[in-house]
Design a protein that fits this description.
By secondary structure, the protein is an alpha+beta fold. The chain has a single domain, classed as Roll (CBS-domain), CATH 3.10.580.10. Helix content is 36%, strand content 24%. The strands form two sheets. Strands 1-6-5-4 form a four-stranded mixed sheet. The protein is globular and about 50 Å long. The mean pLDDT is 94.
């Protein structure tokens, strides 16, 4: 069996937010687009990620930088799907950011993993 790469199932060109933006901005963006993870990007560099869980925590401060996770799981678009899912499982990550020479290229979430699983099982 040929294992596909994560690029086949990732969300391309995901919404992102800057670390100096307000937490309320992240909340509004997530609600408007029905998403749960936002890569945090400053000057085209990935500096963190913020999730709905991060927004639900009791945070001191009102900026993204006050609540974001700085240690971001990231891979290239050519990473094998099974390796990315194993990384997510081992680290208990809800998402992995896909990076490349142009910065953030995508995001792969648990929803994407379930969609991939369903497609693979049905073929």
């Amino acid at each position: 069996m040929i294992v596909p790469t994560v690029s086949r199932y990732m969300t391309h060109n995901p919404y992102s937010i800057g670390s100096r933006e307000l937490l309320s901005d992240a909340h509004a963006l997530m609600q408007a687009h029905r998403i749960h993870h936002l890569p945090v990007v400053d000057d085209d560099l990935l500096v963190g990620i913020i999730s709905g869980d991060d927004l639900a925590r009791d945070v001191t401060g009102d900026r993204i930088s006050d609540a974001m996770t700085r240690d971001v799981a990231s891979v290239s678009a050519g990473a094998r799907l099974d390796e990315v899912i194993a990384l997510m499982s081992a680290g208990r990550f809800g998402s992995v950011v896909i990076t490349g020479e142009h910065g953030v290229e995508g995001i792969f979430t648990l929803s994407d993993a379930l969609r991939a699983f369903a497609e693979i099982l049905s073929s």
